[in-house]
Amino acid sequence: MVIAGGAVLVFIASLRLEKMLAVFLMLLTAGIIFQSWPTLSASKWLTLPDEVQTAKIAEFSDKGNALIVLMDTMASDVFEEVVTNDAALSKALDGFIFYPDTVGASPTTFLAMPTIHSGQPYRGGIPTAQFFSETVRNHSVLTKVADAGYRSILVNPIQNVCPAKVECVLADAAMRSKRSVARSEGLGILDAMLFRLAPLGLKNAAYNDGEWILQSQLEDKRFIQPAMKHNYFLQDLATAMTVSPGAPTLKFLHLMNTHPPYVFDKGCNYAGRQQDRTRENFSIQVKCSLDSFVKLLEALKAHNLYDQTAIVLLADHGNYGIESTRTSIEGSRAKVVGAANPTFAIKPLGSKGGFRTAGGEIYIGDFGATLCDLLKVCSADSGISALKEPYGRTRLFNYYRWKNEFWRASTIAGLTPYEVRGPVGKKENWVKDAPIRVGQTIDFSEKGTSTVYAWTGWSQPEAWGTWSDGPLASLIMNPDKRVPSRITLQLQGFVDPGPVRASVVINEKPVGEIVLDRTKPSGEFTFNVPNEASADSTIKLDLLIADPKSPKELGLSRDDRYLGIGLYSLKIEAQEP
């Protein structure tokens, strides 16, 4: 409504101006309406109920409750660090059991949520978007709990996909009127249009460090950033909490309060703008979000509901932007471990005592089995209850780098399945199936399948191939035949700043060296696989790159990767007799 009204005003004003300017403004008006309509037609306010939903969500039962709070992106190691360093916070988590060795299903919400709902990770066979929608809608453990007589509500359903027999609402509906949401979305659309229409030199000003122009001036400060909004949501629930004699309740709250951007200062006040994506700022955001969560726990205690409420505090995935402290691995692989290690903590009914850490190799798909074990009213189709502290299992983590287009895609480019066979922080426990036929050539461009073989230290594939990023770039292969073999690499070097040298190591054995310079910036290099490696089921090739350089540091571009070797292709073949 807001954007359409603004467009009409522009159109009317244009009729009074000179002809050429009038034509320009008319075209601009048409463009604004055309670009805005898909966003406007999908806006939240169109589906919100007319009445505020706070009372419904805040109503708990004196006959028992299940409270599940999912804080998106809350990495397990940061959660543990924040809680153990804050005595008051640790004390407030009375009766909670924390499981640090938890493996997620994926680095983003898209493939994580179906696994949380159903216990099943994505294993291919159907389009990924279909897997998401059908699994959440038809195979959720929340439906089982609803069948057991629990009044079940899910707050903030992802992509508006709601499990069967579960009522779904938005946090916006619990905090403000439909009119207020419509106003906010109108301001957001206007800001987006200003950004799109601004000249290149003014786009940063229109973006305003994520605060935007109109929203920063006209929006209620509680609603500018999702993290702030969802922390206030928890506080509002605590304030509005009531007790009813009706059937037991289940409430699943999916919150974005620990998700980037980071927006709080150390006092948990709004910092005024988005903060740098550092571990310190992430920890501050986790601390502030847990403080709001504690307010909800305090309200449960004040209403004598705490002992009658089973609570699960979890994340859908960890944080890829933060290196995990649970591993000795460094660089990009430490970030993968961070993404694969979400928070998982529970408070059973009647549980007493201080916050404690438990053992077990937990999978995020164990949520359903754990919930059923806590409530004793259902049986999950998959997973093992965390209360059993299982060991000796294989946990599947589907790794990929996110693109928004994946929400509607049939496949995810670069999806790489890893089997985690043991503690998540140990590199040797990360196993991926990288089958390759002896005689096969692997294309390292974006059209190829190189991500299956890229182990660590590689960028995303590009149209021509893939750059290394950092001093170590590793590949892993599982040949179909155990025969004496050799590997041929077609590659280039980042020779702009000077010569590139890389030592080549196969299964811990040095096998040669790559040297490139401006006189020879690219070439073909062949290395024999050591006999003992040829007899092994897995071949691991490491490129130890001496002094990789960043184009950004050299003033060549804004590319901050540390480049060394750019790989076009790899071929493995049998050695000639």
TrEMBL record:
Where the record annotates domain DUF7024, the positions are 439-573
- Source organism per UniProt: Microvirga aerophila
Q: Name one Pfam family in it.
A: DUF7024
Q: Which UniProt keywords apply?
A: Membrane, Transmembrane, Transmembrane helix
Q: Tell me the superkingdom of the source.
A: Bacteria
Protein name per the record: Uncharacterized protein
Q: Which InterPro entries does the record associate with it?
A: Alkaline_phosphatase_core_sf, DUF7024, Sulfatase_N
The organism's lineage is: Bacteria, Pseudomonadati, Pseudomonadota, Alphaproteobacteria, Hyphomicrobiales
What residue intervals traverse the membrane?
20-37
Q: Where is the Sulfatase N-terminal domain?
A: 65-322
